[in-house]
């Protein structure tokens, strides 16, 4: 189930990322390039990798860590994108939130690393 959700979310992120890229190209305003990059790389690539991993290792979807991983990865990603957008648009107070949510996203990646090592140790 979470494999499907990660894959679906990855497609949503890439659609938003491509739309932002088209907007920036059309407007000749590339001020949100870091948001575009985060949408495409963390949003699309990382979420797709998560989804494909859970599809390849269905037993890895069992346990509470996986649900935590899903919510931390996605909520952290959305919050990071909002904070980063605000920061790039000149809201200086958003800098602390950008830092905080960067660590939240990193926490999601740490959870994924734990899940990967557990799942691959069982199948080795």
Question: Could you describe the 3D structure shown?
Answer:
- The protein has one domain.
- Helix 1 packs antiparallel against helix 2 and helix 2 packs antiparallel against helix 3.
- With 124 residues, the protein is mostly helical.
- The protein is globular, with a radius of gyration of 16 Å.
- It is built from 4 helices and no strands.
- The chain is 84% helix and 0% strand.
- The mean pLDDT is 96.
What percent of the residues sit in helical stretches (DSSP H or I)? over 70%
Shape: globular
- Can you count the beta strands? 0
- Measured by DSSP, the beta-strand proportion falls in under 5%
Structural class: mainly alpha
**Count of separate DSSP helical elements:** 4
* Multimeric state: single chain
Uncertain stretches of 5 or more adjacent residues? none
- Distance linking N and C termini: 24 Å
Mind describing the biggest β-sheet?
Answer: none
Which series of helices and strands comes N to C?
HHHH
The tally of domains stands at 1
Radius of gyration: 16 Å
Structure at a glance:
The protein is 84% helix and 0% strand.
Strands, helices and their partners?
Layout: H1 2-27, H2 33-56, H3 64-88, H4 94-122
Helix pairs in contact: 1-2, 2-3, 3-4
Features:
124 residues; mainly alpha; 4 helices
């Amino acid at each position: 189930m979470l494999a499907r959700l990660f894959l679906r979310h990855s497609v949503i992120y890439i659609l938003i990322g491509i739309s932002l890229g088209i907007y920036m190209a059309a407007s000749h305003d590339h001020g949100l390039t870091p948001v575009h990059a985060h949408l495409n790389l963390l949003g699309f690539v990382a979420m797709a990798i998560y989804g494909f991993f859970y599809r390849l290792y269905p037993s890895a979807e069992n346990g509470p860590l996986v649900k935590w991983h899903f919510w931390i990865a996605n909520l952290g990603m959305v919050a990071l994108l909002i904070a980063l957008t605000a920061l790039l648009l000149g809201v200086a107070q958003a800098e602390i939130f950008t830092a905080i949510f960067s660590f939240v996203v990193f926490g999601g990646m740490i959870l994924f690393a734990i899940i990967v090592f557990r799942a691959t140790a069982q199948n080795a």
